[in-house]
Amino acid sequence: MKNKFMLVAASTILLTMSAPSLARSIAVTSDTLEAAEALIAEKARQLGAQYKITEANMRNRVHMTAKLY
Prior knowledge:
- This protein has about 70 residues and is an alpha+beta fold.
- It has a domain of about 45 residues.
- Helix content is about 45%, strand content about 30%.
- It is built from 2 helices and 3 strands.
- The chain has a 3-stranded antiparallel beta sheet, covered by helices on one side.
- The radius of gyration is 17 Å and the shape is globular.
């Protein structure tokens, strides 16, 4: 009975979570903005996800992060 209650509680929590809370962050490093975005796009394609770039920083190389959802 206790296990059934825990299963129902866990299911309820997962079903009420919004999609952004389930999003996964990834980071890549490359030589250009275009190449960095291409790496993120490829990873998103492999996972069957969409992406939104959240940060890009250019110094000697490009560092870019994105959320996959």
